[in-house]
Amino acid sequence: MLRVVPLISVMLVSGVAIAAAEPQAGDDLATCRDRQADLQARAGACETLLNADRVTGKDKAVALTVRGNTMINKRDYVHAIETLSTAAGLDPDNVVTLNLRGLAYERTGQDDLALADYNLALQKRPTYGVPYNNRGVIQLRRGALQSALDDFSLSIKFTPKFVLGWTNRARVRTLMKDYDGAIADFAEAEKIDPTAQQIPGNRCITYGMMGKYDLAFADCNGLIEKQPRNVYALNNRADVSMMKGDLDAALKDYTTAIQLNPNNIRAHSGRGQIYERKKDLAQARADYRAAAYSLTKFDEIDVARARAVAQQRLAALTPQTLGGAPTGRRVALVIGNGAYKNVHALPNPPRDAKLIASVLHDVGFQTVISVSDLTRDKFFDALKTFADEAEKADWAVVYYAGHGFEIGGVNYLVPVDAKLAADRDAEAQAVALEQVIAAVGAARKVRLVILDACRDNPFAPTMQHTLSLKLVDKGFSNIEPGAGFMVVYAAKHGETAIDGDNGADSPLSTALAREIKEPRVELRKLFDIVRDDVWSATKHEQQPFTYGSPPGREDFYFVVGK
Fold first, then answer.
1. Which of 16-20, 470-474, 532-536 is least confident?
2. Which of 71, 191, 287, 530 sits CB 3.0–4.6 Å from 76 for a disulfide?
């Protein structure tokens, strides 16, 4: 999905020289060195040289830097950092390498390391405009508006034809209520590139904050007419409608944005505020949870503000209760998806789900919603119904068995009717893990998600790469759930789980069903035991992994015992 990004860190730009010897036209080395070359041709040439081990020294650093840039474009930030670190070791003075590694650090939420790289690049070349812009993005995200303004101004000074420097400074000026200065910056950006979509996308908000609603809607409407699936523009138009007091128009745009991207923090936060005003508090809380618990590595400033509002309003609307026993009301949603229509079916998940549902009933869960072979619509319906139950419970547990995969750093569970011809279809065809986490987030104490779904991505062999994203064909990616959440994978991130042989239940469901019934085994220890049992049963081929933890001041037991 194409979107306008409000604050954009920049990777390789054509105006930045890469230190290398003078190229000789016509060979891979010349193309790899040539910063003006077609990006795909350059990346291919550099890969050829690296794979054949035909470059050394600074030339190898250049080739690795281009490879690292490609990895960033695919959101493969971990390997990008490794690759760019090797390049920096070969050529410590290559400021492009340092800037790119800073960007990769930033995209993994490691802002301090990113700033260190940006600062080092600027120390080595104080007239390099791009790191000023990237450093300004972090300053803005941290709320240091004056520091961000200063950095964007320096980026413009040293790279005056750099559109993002102008539009990013306009964004800061808007937040500082220097509206005339912001409009002037947008005008300068327009002189450089009249087609740059971030100009009307961001100027829409500036005009809205000025009360010039006709101009604001003209900018947003023009962009949305060209790009009806532009979620950022839809959110901005909704925000302007909220400023104007047109709640129905805002609600329509936020809902459309959520249909296009069910994990969108701004849309859920904005829609939650509308439902709260309309006194539909249950739906408001559901939207606030979806915004508050999204698993992003970092938030841009508008997203961070939207999340903060959602967290504050969710706390205000959530009934506050005193402690209560760890064995209070407990509810579970158990899903087994096996009858897939467009990829190979899985015989085990419905059977695994039935086993786990039975055990949870046996250990005293008051409500166990057990469903199988859910389409996407039914999946969301089940999550909504369960979230309503979780709001009245101390424990909320979701167990899911079926296909699952990761694309571009987002983990997805797969409904039985999913059709993924291309990577960009994931948002519209699958169910993101965040939606499940938001559902359990309604509970007061234990919020547990168990994913017996770390199988090969069944769509990987035929899926088209249209978004330049890293496409993972094995298992899920690692996550960092918020405080009080516990997420258990059947296999460690990037690895696959084993289905039961000859009609047997999966190794995870078998171990889990056995250990849950043991009295006085604390929740955290229980999953350590399950991990060891699966590791042993699979002869060291599968190792479950746990992310996060339940609240630390209490012990929690499936079976309390005497």
1. 16-20
2. 71
Beta-bridge mates of residue 547: 487
Q: What is the largest CA-CA distance in the chain?
A: 81
- The C-alpha atoms of residue 539 and residue 518 are separated, in whole angstroms, by 24
Distance CA(102)–CA(225), nearest Å, equals 36
Buried/exposed 151-162: b ≥16 CB within 10 Å, e otherwise: bbebbbebbeeb
Using one digit for the tens of pLDDT, what is the confidence trace for 142-161?
A: 889 999 999 999 999 999 99
pTM, full prediction? 0.80
> What kind and span of H or E run contains 446?
strand 446-452
| Euclidean distance between CA atoms 505 and 514, whole angstroms | 12
Instruction: Compute the distance between CA of residue 204 and CA of residue 221 in angstroms, rounded to an integer.
Output: 9
H or E element that contains 88: helix 77-90
In three state form, how does the secondary structure of 106-154 look? HHCCCHHHHHHHHHHHHHHCCCCHHHHHHHHHHHHHCCCHHHHHHHHHH
Q: How far lies 50's CA from each of 9, 12, 60, 547, in Å?
A: 27, 19, 7, 36
Q: What is the 3-state secondary structure (H, E, C) of 329-387?
A: CEEEEEEECCCCCCCCCCCHHHHHHHHHHHHHHHCCCCEEEEEECCCHHHHHHHHHHHH
